[in-house]
Amino acid sequence: MKNHLTCYPVTRICSLLGVSSSGYYAWLKRANKSAKLSEYIQKQYWQHKARLGAPSLLHDAREAGYQVSERTISRVLQQLGLRSLRLHSKAARKFKHKTDRAYHNIAPNTLDRQFNPDKPNKTWVTNITYIKTGEGWLYLSVIIDLYGRKVIARQTSRYIDRHLVCNTLKQALFRRHFPKNVLIHSDQGSQYCSADFKQLLLQYGLRQSMSRRGNCFDNAVVESFFHTLKTHIIHDCYYKTRKQANKALFEYIEIYYNRIRRHSANGWVSPEQYEQQYYQNEKMIEAGTV
Fold first, then answer.
1. Residue spans of alpha helices (H) in the chain
2. How far apart are CA 280 and CA 284, in angstroms?
3. C-alpha angle 261-264-268 in degrees, rounded to nearest 5
4. Dist CA 154 CA 151 (whole Å)
């Protein structure tokens, strides 16, 4: 039909084809919307480096003004031949810390899988993982605030020792302005049982909680973060040097994960945005506007 529009009016062509001109324009409008949606989804997909699936893309599209469903997003992704990394990621190999129970004081599981505190700086979870580089292993220690799932501290080292976890805790305390009575939850790794780490907890008025032995689900939030991290920037990636790996970790955690990536536990907003909403609400309550 397009080929004849320069020679004949739309009404005549539609009459010959037995369709209404209004029906043709409605079809044309839908086709244009569909093309724009496909273009938008493809742009967002590659902008996020293939890390997003239909649920996250749905919220992006709706914020951009597209009235669509998750089913529509899934269909467009399928038509474009696009899949998120999470759909075909490798299974993560479990990293185990060694603890001699005869010589270390194990803290109780005070957290008890209560992963949704009502405010920031109430519960922090921490753990260590590893990244293989051409220079050898690089160990990553993180602390996550459970309120908004924000990574509030990260430290790396070629050694997995008490200094790594102590430096991570010091960074978290500094960044969060030294809050008191925070519950710090970890596994039973020897680093978290060390006298130096326990002294830091005592010095800054923090409480300690530990997962039950061999139960990774007691620290599920940080385990899930490591799985996502490895799916997005570790599996199928090769880092020649520790410096290259550190750069990738900085860009992913500080720039992408904390500030941009939507999190289902936060109502599909980023950790940074979720925390900002909390503090904005607090200010409104103090001002008496709520």
1. 10-17, 21-47, 54-63, 70-80, 162-175, 190-193, 195-203, 220-229, 242-250, 271-287
2. 6
3. 60
4. 7
Structure-block tokens of residue 169: 């805790």
Angle at 83 between CA 260 and CA 33, to 5 degrees: 75
**What single letter denotes the amino acid at residue 246?**
N
Q: What is the pLDDT of residues 220-262, one digit of tens each?
A: 999 999 999 999 999 889 999 999 999 999 999 999 999 999 9
Locate the domains of the chain by residue range.
2-88, 123-283
CA–CA separation, 288 and 162 (whole Å): 46
CA angle 200, 205, 211 (to 5 degrees): 70
pTM for the predicted model, two decimal places: 0.80
- How much of the chain is helix, strand and coil, in % rounded to 5? 50, 15, 35
For residues 204 and 197, give the distance between their C-alpha atoms in angstroms, rounded to a whole number: 11
CATH ID of 123-283, from 3.30.559.10, 3.30.420.10, 3.90.110.10, 3.40.50.150: 3.30.420.10
Strand partners for 208: 184
Return the exposure string of 198-211: e unless at least 16 CB atoms fall within 10 Å of the residue's CB, then b: bebbeebebebbbb
**Residues 266, 55: Cα–Cα separation, whole Å:** 13
For 56, 76, 89, 180, the CA distances from 207, given in Å and listed in that order, are 35, 49, 36, 9
Packing angle, helices 54-63 and 70-80, rounded to 10: 110
**Average pLDDT of the segment spanning 30-49:** 79
